[in-house]
Amino acid sequence: MSRVEFILNEKKVEFEGDLNKRLLDVLRDDFGLFGSKEGCGEGECGACAILFNDEIVNSCLLPMANVVNQRVMTIEGFSTTKKYKAIEQSFMDHGAVQCGYCTPGMIIATESLLNKNAKPTEEEIKDGLAGNLCRCTGYNMIIDAIIAVSRREDDLW
Amino acid sequence: MKDISISINKVDNISKISGKEAYVGDIKLPDMYHAKTFRANIIKGTIKKITYPNLPKDYYIVDASDIPGKNFVKIIFDDMPVFVENKVSYYGEPICLVIGKDKTEILKIMDGISVTYEEDTPEFEYKDAVIHYDFNKGDPKYKESDDLKLIEGTYDMGYQEHVYIEPQGMIGYFENNKVSMLGAMQCPYYIKNAVLSILGIEPEEEEKNSKVKVKQAPVGGAFGGKEEFPSLLACQLAVAVNKLKIPISLIYERTEDMEFSTKRHPATIELKTLVTKEGDIKQVMAKVSIDGGAYKGLSGVVLQRAMLAASGAYAFDNMIVTGDVFRTNTVPTGAFRGFGAPQMIFSVEMFIQHIAKTLSINPLKLRKKYLVKQGDTTSTSGTFRDTVIMPDMIKKAMDISNYESKTTKYEKLINAGNSVKGYSKDDVYRGVGMSWFLHGCGFTGSGEQKHIKAVVRLAKDANNQVTILIASVDMGQGIKTTMRKLVAHELEIPFEQVTLDDPDTDYVPDSGPTVASRTMMIVGGLVLEATKKLKKQWKDNEEQLIETNYKQPDYVKWDDETLIGDAYPAYSWGVNIVEVEVSKVTYQVNLVGTWSVYDIGKAIDERIIMGQCDGGLLQGIGYGMLEVMNHKDGKIQQKSVTDYIIPTAKDSAKMETHLMNNPFALGPYGAKGAGELTLIGGAPAVALAIENAIGKNVYKIPVTPEYIMELMNNE
């Protein structure tokens, strides 16, 4: 049992427990944040993706020991931002959501991608999404949604 | 009035995008327990002795001895037990649930269970036929002769795993004196009936005093994988909840899901034809063998779908079609988008190409000659009654993809010695393939009329709010949006004035399962019929309840025994063209682009249908070129998404899709089935593209680099 601190969605929080616990379980069990989903539990599907110090990371692979004093942003935190609103609108406009289980992870992947590359090409978008599996959409509409949001006039990224 | 196809915002978009949508794994009931399944670790045999460890307080084991009813998952046949009693028929067959609050403690208890088995020799070959069907068409009297050449082709397909991103999961709880289920499912009433059966409650008893309730939670993808399989989880939980009266969640991890949930049937399809030199096909013979795994489940119906598709999008005068489900000591196979048709359409599309090649005639000419026309007879001697607009669709697809010039160019390349090995990874063979296909909409044969008997209700309250009461499930295909759209459109009222909740068997009638591309055409048809009635009888600010019941169109005649007649009331049609590059060095296949044209009657929401088209096709292409799953001595070898490769964004390609407007007279606003159709053409199109690229006949899917190497080395 340890008691540690980390930054969750821009607020300092405390976690008390086993530092071997996966961040995904901590988010879901200890903080009641269910937006990060478990799809595979081995870092392959991206449904549990979060931003870890602004980088996309699969929270199912991250032990709490590595999270101490670090910054974690989940879909719940990100969904309060202007950038999120723009991505959300674009996903809706392009039909990028079907069952929705992969979607929060896709949104995180989009934010992570656009942070590094505000005007990605189609190939760069595909690279950016390569760690996020979707079984419903065939990816085309997700890619279209990301192209559209990245071509906005207001330069959010 | 606005065209109904014009897209609107999906109602669940925001909750899904923001992560607020609560799937079964996100639902925490107060004081909830967890369950894990303890499974047999032999393939076939008998349990001689089983010893459970002493259980700590508040930990429980529930097994076959706790079942009040008969120990079967009610599907079609009473053959699959809910818990093993003593006979083990496949590796991993469930023996009991271990239940408690702490997952680590549960695993410790599972380690302490000791089972003594007496092992038997398992069967993995196609030897033990448990279901057989056959039918003939026309007068198949022809024999091989000087004038009639016999051409044969045998086609093989492996498993396909659904890989819905949300694994299987169910919560059982006891509330208001009812054993209640909440979870990921396609068919609330399948589950309700299965739970009644395992608890030994007669349907009449349930009518009088309801003891079971099933409610759907948002479904994170299904594709057929949540058709019959969730009934097993629900039955296990029902036994536990009935005994313990506590809330229990049973959520699979990915590995458990991949190893032990149902999959698409592996199949071998032998096709033969008697044909003249000029390409007059006198007779076609099809022999279908599918691997049902250890229990029959839905395999008989899957076999029928496969057999009925034996002439694909073509009409042949004389046919002999036979098929068997084989029992093997492997995990039971089950429903998967397409339901037998993908196996058969792949085989037929390859075979007609191979016939043309054998006779050195133009494949496109041969295919066009036998393409179904309105008025032609189906494989089961029924009639294609509605207009068939495939010629326009084929032309459209060929135009937008440049199919003809590409095939010719790529064929010339490979024939001109382009088959020499490449040296750089950019050295590629190029190929393009085209598939033609159809899918029967709704249940096969008299299923809708005899077995499902769908009932739909509309309830209007005193504030003129209209609620749709159906058992259909939104699993991503968007019916929460399209059903409401249908009603609002017809009544000319705002969309918000129509309500549709996730089905709960306490409130909705049995409008049938969410399967067989039936939801919009059949259930939507009934919803529209009810809406029209309501419109006529509309009384402002009064409560009204309208009910409609399915009635089979009079023209549909079907014989369940002989499999002769109209197997479906309507067919949807499709054309896929797929272009690939095959690396000359690694034989890795790269998807270049796809071009598709579909006739689904009328789209109730175009963007939603386009989503089905893209997703279905990529699943079909994955089936055709990527997704390898097999078992070794009855044990599934690919237990994770690392080992079982499904298409990623990098594997996808630009997909161009066109929808034809060809309204079906009996569908709501002309809509026919759409969900399954979009998967069916993917595998043959990509396999034909690879065939075009490498200049070798392809006989099995997935067409992996290893298989291409084998073909290339067999000069």
Describe the structure in your own words.
The complex is a heterodimer of chains A (157) and B (715). Chain A folds into two domains: 2-76, Roll (Ubiquitin-like (UB roll)), CATH 3.10.20.30; 81-150, DNA polymerase, domain 1 (Orthogonal Bundle), CATH 1.10.150. Chain A is globular. In chain A, helix 3 packs across helix 6 (140-150). Chain A is of the alpha+beta class. In chain A, strands 2-1-5-3-4 form a five-stranded mixed sheet, with helices on both faces. Helices cover 36% and strands 16% of the residues of chain A. Chain A has six helices and five strands, in the order E-E-H-E-E-E-H-H-H-H-H. Chain B has 715 residues and is an alpha+beta fold. Chain B has three domains: 24-122 and 163-260, Aldehyde oxidase/xanthine dehydrogenase, molybdopterin binding domain (Aldehyde Oxidoreductase, domain 4); 267-443 and 565-713, Aldehyde Oxidoreductase, domain 4; 447-551, 2-Layer Sandwich (Aldehyde Oxidoreductase, domain 4), CATH 3.30.365. In chain B, 28% of the residues lie in helices and 25% in strands. Chain B contains 18 helices and 28 strands. A seven-stranded mixed sheet of chain B has the order 3-5-1-12-9-10-11, sandwiched between helices. Chain B has a six-stranded mixed sheet with strand order 7-15-14-13-8-28. In chain B, strands 16-23-24-27 form a four-stranded mixed sheet, sandwiched between helices. In chain B, strand 18 (466-469), helix 13 and strand 19 form a beta-alpha-beta unit. Chain B is globular and about 75 Å long. The mean pLDDT of chain B is 97. At the A-B interface, helix 3, helix 4, helix 5 and helix 6 of A face helix 1 and helix 15 of B.
